């Protein structure tokens, strides 16, 4: 048979076929000993049928099972211990509890779960609030599911190796309750090891802005449920800590926002204008310029305005930096956040009343 002549085969894709399982596995035993990657997409297999096949592939590292009839993931034994990649996209999984059955796989690095109907996420915590499950998992795709609870997103912070996440096309991000920019900031704030979100790298400046805005967004609620700027009196409720398990860590990193930063937002046109100070180290003799700007102004439009205000600036190399934080009056340190995306609104970079924008070239 053909497989007997392909003993050095390392990748096999038989997707979109309706192959019957062999009646005699013994005759195939030596055929796929070197196979590294296997595609079984759209073959109407359930998990029991998949696990029957696995002993034929002792060196298997990548397994692609998109659009099958898999509802449960129990009972794989040690047959998947070498696996680094599993795709279960578009399978009708019963829930996240089934996914946890893969959590003991020691080498699993990438788990692909779009369109599997997942609505909640729960990971058992160890003594350090992480989890022993999925020790090597660095990349997780959960797009096109029905996750609607931010608490579920926070559960992913327990994954000690997670660096890349796809979460778009879930109600928690796309319901309209928050805009896409805010949703991205909230995900970044809740999962502190993330490096890439929805295929876009998270810069240090973006994480800084996201985490500071996270404190401001939920700071008033934190105060109302027992939080305090006095560490000896800081005892937020258990319910708040369950909803925001990272809040205290972010608080320790930056300090508590000032009371004025926790005001309820006023969406009137007048209140959406922010007064900023523009100054340039390249022009030390030019007095700082104050301007009222709409928070919805794009960085590109601000760049055009600055070019007119600071005549002689080099437009090609011009950079803008929001000076975030204050020096003596608060516990926040001073940070510079570069406005590095011309298409984003300036509010994305935490620009507010009193912000100082440095112009350099």
Features:
361 residues, 9-stranded mixed beta sheet, 5-stranded mixed beta sheet
Question: Short description, anyone?
Answer:
The chain is α/β, with parallel strands linked by helices. It has helices at residues 47-53, 96-99, 150-155, 171-174, 180-190, 204-224, 238-243, 247-254, 299-309; strands at residues 11-13, 37-39, 62-64, 85-87, 110-112, 139-141, 164-166, 196-197, 200-201, 273-279, 289-294, 319-324, 335-338, 356-360. Helix 6 crosses helix 8.
Q: Estimate what percentage of residues fall within beta strands.
A: 5-15%
The multimeric state of the shown protein is single chain
* Biggest β-sheet strands, sense, barrel: 9 strands, mixed
Which range best describes the helical content: under 10%, 10-25%, 25-40%, 40-55%, 55-70% or over 70%? 10-25%
Question: What does the overall shape look like?
Answer: elongated
Structural class, by secondary structure, is alpha/beta
Q: Could you give the distance between the termini? A: 69 Å
Give the SSE string: EEHEEHEEHEHHEEHHHEEHEEE
Report the average pLDDT across residues. Answer: 88
Strand order within the widest sheet?
Answer: 1-2-3-4-5-6-7-8-9
Radius of gyration: 26 Å
Number of β-strand runs: 14
Explain this structure:
This protein has 361 residues and is α/β, with parallel strands linked by helices. The protein has 9 helices and 14 strands. It has helices spanning 47-53, 96-99, 150-155, 171-174, 180-190, 204-224, 238-243, 247-254, 299-309; strands at 11-13, 37-39, 62-64, 85-87, 110-112, 139-141, 164-166, 196-197, 200-201, 273-279, 289-294, 319-324, 335-338, 356-360. The strands form 2 sheets. Strands 1-2-3-4-5-6-7-8-9 form a 9-stranded mixed beta sheet, with helices on one face. A 5-stranded mixed beta sheet has the order 11-10-14-12-13. 28% of the residues are buried. The model is unreliable at 326-333 (pLDDT under 50).
């Amino acid at each position: 048979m053909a497989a007997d002549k392909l003993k050095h085969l390392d990748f096999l894709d038989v997707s979109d076929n309706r192959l019957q399982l062999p009646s005699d596995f013994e005759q195939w035993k030596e055929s796929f000993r070197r196979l590294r990657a296997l595609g079984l997409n759209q073959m109407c297999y359930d998990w029991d049928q998949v696990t029957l096949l696995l002993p034929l592939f002792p060196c298997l590292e990548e397994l692609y099972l998109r659009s099958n009839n898999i509802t449960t993931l129990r009972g794989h034994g040690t047959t998947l211990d070498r696996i680094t990649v599993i795709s279960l996209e578009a399978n009708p999984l019963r829930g996240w509890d089934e996914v946890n059955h893969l959590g003991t796989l020691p080498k699993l690095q990438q788990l692909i779960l779009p369109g599997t109907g997942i609505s909640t996420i729960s990971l058992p915590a160890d003594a350090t609030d992480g989890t022993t499950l999925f020790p090597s998992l660095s990349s997780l795709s959960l797009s096109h599911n029905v996750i609607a609870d931010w608490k579920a997103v926070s559960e992913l912070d327990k994954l000690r190796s997670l660096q890349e996440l796809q979460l778009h096309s879930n109600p928690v991000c796309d319901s309209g309750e928050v805009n896409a920019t805010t949703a991205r900031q909230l995900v970044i704030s809740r999962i502190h090891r993330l490096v890439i979100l929805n295929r876009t790298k998270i810069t240090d400046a973006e994480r800084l802005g996201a985490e500071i805005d996270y404190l401001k967004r939920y700071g008033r609620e934190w105060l109302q449920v027992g939080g305090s700027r006095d560490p000896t009196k800081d005892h937020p409720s258990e319910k708040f800590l369950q909803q925001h398990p990272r809040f205290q860590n972010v608080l320790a990193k930056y300090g508590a926002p000032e009371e004025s930063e926790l005001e309820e937002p006023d969406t009137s046109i007048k209140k959406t204008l922010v007064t900023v100070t523009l100054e340039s180290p390249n022009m030390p003799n030019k007095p700082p310029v104050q301007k009222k700007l709409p928070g919805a102004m794009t960085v590109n439009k601000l760049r055009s305005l600055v070019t007119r205000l600071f005549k002689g600036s080099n437009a090609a190399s011009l950079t803008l930096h929001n000076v975030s934080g204050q020096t003596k009056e608060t516990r926040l340190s001073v940070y510079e956040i570069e406005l590095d995306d011309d298409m984003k609104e300036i509010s994305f970079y935490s620009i507010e009343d009193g912000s100082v924008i440095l112009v350099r070239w």
